Each structure stands twice: as structure tokens, then as C-alpha cells.
Give the backbone structure.
Amino acid sequence: MDLVSYEITKADIDSINQVLAKLLNSVALDIVVVGDEGGRLITFSPYGEDMFNVAQRFCVISASVLGALDQLDNLLQSKSNFFTEGLNGSIYIKLSNSNFFISVKFGRNVMLGTVKLFVDRAAKELEPVFIKIRESSSKKFSGIKFDMLEI
């Protein structure tokens, strides 16, 4: 059973998309997705019908990585971000305090420090939106706790 514990308004999506547009104007990213702990895609950029399936798959994989990191947390002592470098590109994932995340893929010509700086700024700017989303639904689901992979 997949239980979504929040509702996102069009205004919330518009606020998130504005931050993503600013992020894409600051750093040369191939794709940026915003998702939740269950791998549900909230929004992505750059938008295109041909990118929807890629964004959805990228979101699910990013959530899976964060879930694995959550289980390794007692070894790593930090689960707020993840970076991996590949032959043709790299991935950086930033987890918010509200269990939403921003995941980006970028080319080898883009410096990791720049990506981290701007993604972390975007995450900080989006945190009030994420908190509002979580708080607006908490009354509806009082007594139910939604944490990353509760075991």
C-alpha cells in the first residue's frame, strides 16, 4: 500500500519550479528532480514530455539510494547528501529536513563544488515550502509517522 501523507498545491509546484529555474540558470545541469522518500516525482527541470520517463526513473533511483544511506546511517553518521562520479557525468542528491530531496545529474565539465553550493542553496530556499507541505497534511494523518524506511 502506497500512502501519500501530503498534498501539493499548484502554488507549491510553481514555487518549487521557480527555484529549479534559478538553479538551472546558475549551474549547467543535465536534469534536476524533486521527489519524496517514496520515490514519487514532485517536479523536474528542464521540462519536456521526452524527459518525463527519465525524470521519473531518476527520482525512484535517487530515493532508493537515500533509503540505502538511511540504513547505513550508523556507519556514515550523515545522510543529508550523496555524490557519485561516473565516466560521463555525476550525480548529487541533497535530502531536506522534511524528507524531500533534490537530485541532479551533471557533466564532467561542471565542478562538484559549484553544484553543491547551488543545490544546497536551492534546498535551503525550498525548505519552507517543504515544511508547509508536510504541516498542511499533518492534521489529516495525525498519529501516523512517515520516516525514511522505519524498521
Notes: The CA atoms of residues 56 and 73 lie 25 Å apart.
